[in-house]
């Protein structure tokens, strides 16, 4: 199918695309390429929920032609008020697929590909195939995963391995959008301490003197569930599980004369749901797509690098450059693995002696671990005893080529990462 | 973006990344390794790793040599999740014991295991906290309400209950595990 950038309907967008503005970077702006950019750029949207629906709609209407969307969830009836790509007949269906179908039906010349799975199910080649990635997620864990994956993909010999990550997030009336250039600017992990931790209630309060309905619900999920259900893993998406928690919490609330335990509150507490505001999602998604557009076309400078938005009282936004952390466990230079080349016939014990002799690292009693494998650990004694036999084995039997070995030592203020390469 | 790239590229050492695909140790493992290798246990405690390759799951045995729980051997499981140190380790007592801050399911009420956990805290802090629970059981943070009441009402009676519970005896209608050190 011919993608028509020359057709009448794109006339006005072309005007924006082809003219250099006052802030345009003269070196990287090329009017003839800009026109092609939207057509060629391949973008991945992670999450097809409240933010994701807005992001997909914006991208398609902006003129992006190649969009992939990934989401592991199915549509719940409670999503329908703000996740406007879904209809009641879609309840129970995968979000990614329904969102893609809807976009396709409204903007037929978009190539949109859904992926109904977890982001962890996709490999490096998949992420490598995109130009940039937009996240509209509500999970810290998923964000940390994609952030670390993109940072690790960076190869300094190839600029294409650096995939800009545009991250949007909302919580009630508040939100933020940011642009992360892996390895170049502050990453998600660098700013993890900016998260306000969820205020936890002491477990003894839950156990003995609950005062609020949420205390009863937390008691049911943290203490009663494992006691009564044993090893059965709680699934917060399973209505039967939520019902059990609800009735258990309700009984307890009655015992203590506490009112207000409802099914919805139970769901909210165990899933840590903060009420979503549709317009916060719209504002943050608009900002994310604005950045995607600028990154793709070079028409204007992109966000450097963090925009926070607060809508509680009037509107407040603040943009600042969040600084990279030298000791960030994901992107920090300090944690950059050092390449070490070793012979295939070197025993672990010999290698450790070689490492200790190196003047540039200054090790005293190093403990070494590979990927989910203890090589030689000097402390505590039980672990030393169990890993001692490894000293006689060849390093090449224990560690694969290109694999990382983490070295900790009382003489080192941080863990040293070594990347093992064989001669 | 390319401009920043070329600027940064020059700063990076020439040998940065070549050859086979990078496979990195996770942040949780890295931090746990550092914490574990820095722990120096007193003679009253020991750690055991059922699977030495899995340092994220281990047991800690505490054998207090003073206080009301002297002569007992108390085992705790530690489970360190992928979000460590941003989330605290999950710690449970393996035995059914009579203690105001530990319920009969093994849940432990220790502030730094929940509401006061911070990523700067390490495993050593948790271990010290657990040890302290046996030296100074705290009736003001009760998880086992009856044990806490007993301690508040009469320290002597509480001490007798601790002794008999540790031998596998009953306190009221509840039978506890024999935790005597062998
Ligand atoms: Zn970072």
From TrEMBL, chain A:
Keywords: ATP-binding, Ligase, Nucleotide-binding, Ubl conjugation pathway
Record Pfam families: E2_bind, ThiF
UniProt feature coiled coil, ranges: none
SMART domains: E2_bind (SM01181)
Record SUPFAM superfamilies: Activating enzymes of the ubiquitin-like proteins
GO cellular component: cytoplasm; nucleus
Gene Ontology biological process terms in this record: protein neddylation
EC class: ligase
Biochemical pathway: Protein modification; protein neddylation
GO molecular function, one term: NEDD8 activating enzyme activity
EC number annotated for this UniProt entry: 6.2.1.64
Catalytic activity: ATP + [NEDD8 protein] + [E1 NEDD8-activating enzyme]-L-cysteine = AMP + diphosphate + [E1 NEDD8-activating enzyme]-S-[NEDD8 protein]-yl-L-cysteine
Domain E2 binding residue range list: 340-423
Membership in a protein family: Belongs to the ubiquitin-activating E1 family. UBA3 subfamily.
General function of this protein: Catalytic subunit of the dimeric E1 enzyme, which activates NEDD8.
Name the record gives this protein: NEDD8-activating enzyme E1 catalytic subunit
The organism of origin for this protein: Ascobolus immersus RN42
UniProtKB/TrEMBL annotation, chain B:
Principal EC category: transferase
Keyword vocabulary terms for this entry: ATP-binding, Nucleotide-binding, Transferase, Ubl conjugation pathway
Family membership: Belongs to the ubiquitin-conjugating enzyme family.
Chain segments annotated as coiled-coil in the UniProt record: none
Species of origin: Ascobolus immersus RN42
Catalytic activity reported: [E1 NEDD8-activating enzyme]-S-[NEDD8 protein]-yl-L-cysteine + [E2 NEDD8-conjugating enzyme]-L-cysteine = [E1 NEDD8-activating enzyme]-L-cysteine + [E2 NEDD8-conjugating enzyme]-S-[NEDD8-protein]-yl-L-cysteine
Transmembrane segments: none
Pathway annotation from the record: Protein modification; protein neddylation
Name listed for the protein in its UniProt record: NEDD8-conjugating enzyme UBC12
One Gene Ontology MF term: ATP binding
Superkingdom of origin: Eukaryota
InterPro entries the record matches: Ub_conjugating_enzyme, UBC, UBQ-conjugating_AS, UBQ-conjugating_enzyme/RWD
CDD domains in the record: UBCc_UBE2F_UBE2M (cd23794)
Residue positions of the active site: 109
Pfam families: UQ_con
Gene3D superfamilies, sorted: Ubiquitin Conjugating Enzyme
Domain UBC core: 20-171
EC number: 2.3.2.34
């Amino acid at each position: 199918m011919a993608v028509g950038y020359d057709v009448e309907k794109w006339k006005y967008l072309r005007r924006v695309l082809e003219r250099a503005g006052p802030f345009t970077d003269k070196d990287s702006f090329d009017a003839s390429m800009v026109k092609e950019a939207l057509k060629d750029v391949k973008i991945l949207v992670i999450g097809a929920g409240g933010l994701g629906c807005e992001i997909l709609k914006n991208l398609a209407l902006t003129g992006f032609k190649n969009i992939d969307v990934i989401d592991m969830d199915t549509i719940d009836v409670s999503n329908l008020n703000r996740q406007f790509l879904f209809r009641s007949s879609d309840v129970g269906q995968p979000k990614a697929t329904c969102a893609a179908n809807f976009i396709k039906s409204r903007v037929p010349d978009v190539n949109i590909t859904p992926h109904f799975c977890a982001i962890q199910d996709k490999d490096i080649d998949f992420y490598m195939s995109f130009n940039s990635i937009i996240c509209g997620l509500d999970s810290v864990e998923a964000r940390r995963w994609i952030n670390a994956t993109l940072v690790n993909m960076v190869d300094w010999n190839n600029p294409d391995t650096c995939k800009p990550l545009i991250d949007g997030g909302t919580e009630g009336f508040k939100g933020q959008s940011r642009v992360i250039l892996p390895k170049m600017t502050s990453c998600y992990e660098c700013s993890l301490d900016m998260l306000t931790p969820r205020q936890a209630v002491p477990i003894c309060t839950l156990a003995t003197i609950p005062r609020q309905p949420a205390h009863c619900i937390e008691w049911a999920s943290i203490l009663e569930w494992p006691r009564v259900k044993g090893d059965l893993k709680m699934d917060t998406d399973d209505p039967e599980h939520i019902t059990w928690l609800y009735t258990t919490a309700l009984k307890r609330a009655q015992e203590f004369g506490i009112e207000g335990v409802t099914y919805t509150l139970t769901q909210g507490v165990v899933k840590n749901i903060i009420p979503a505001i549709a317009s916060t999602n719209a504002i943050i998604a608009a900002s994310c797509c604005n950045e995607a557009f600028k990154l793709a076309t070079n028409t204007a400078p992109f966000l450097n690098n963090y925009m926070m938005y607060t809508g509680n009282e009037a509107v407040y936004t603040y943009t600042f450059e969040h600084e990279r952390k030298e000791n960030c466990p994901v992107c920090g230079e300090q944690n950059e693995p050092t390449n070490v080349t070793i012979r295939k016939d070197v025993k672990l014990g010999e290698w450790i002696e070689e490492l200790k002799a190196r003047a540039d690292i200054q090790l005293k009693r190093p403990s070494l671990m590979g990927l989910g494998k203890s090589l030689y650990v000097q402390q505590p004694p039980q672990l030393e005893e169990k890993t001692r036999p490894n000293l006689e084995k060849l390093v090449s039997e224990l560690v694969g080529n290109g694999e990382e070995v983490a070295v900790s030592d009382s003489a080192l203020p941080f863990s040293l990462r070594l990347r093992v390469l064989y001669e | 973006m390319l401009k920043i790239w070329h600027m940064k590229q020059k700063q990076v050492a020439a040998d940065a990344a070549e050859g086979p695909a990078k496979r990195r140790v996770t942040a949780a493992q890295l931090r746990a390794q550092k914490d574990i290798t820095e722990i120096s246990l007193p003679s009253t405690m020991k750690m055991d790793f059922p699977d030495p390759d899995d340092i994220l799951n281990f047991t800690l045995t505490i054998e207090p040599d003073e206080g009301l729980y002297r002569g007992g051997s108390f085992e705790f499981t530690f489970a360190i999740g992928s979000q460590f140190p941003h989330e605290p380790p999950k710690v449970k007592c393996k035995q059914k014991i009579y203690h105001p801050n530990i319920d009969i399911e093994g849940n432990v009420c220790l502030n730094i295991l929940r509401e006061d956990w911070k990523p700067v805290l390490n495993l050593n802090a948790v271990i010290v906290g657990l040890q302290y629970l046996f030296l100074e059981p705290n009736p003001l943070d009760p998880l086992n309400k009856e044990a806490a009441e007993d301690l508040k009402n009469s320290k002597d009676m509480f001490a007798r209950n601790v002794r008999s519970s540790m031998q596998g005896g009953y306190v009221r209608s509840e039978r506890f595990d024999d935790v005597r050190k062998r």
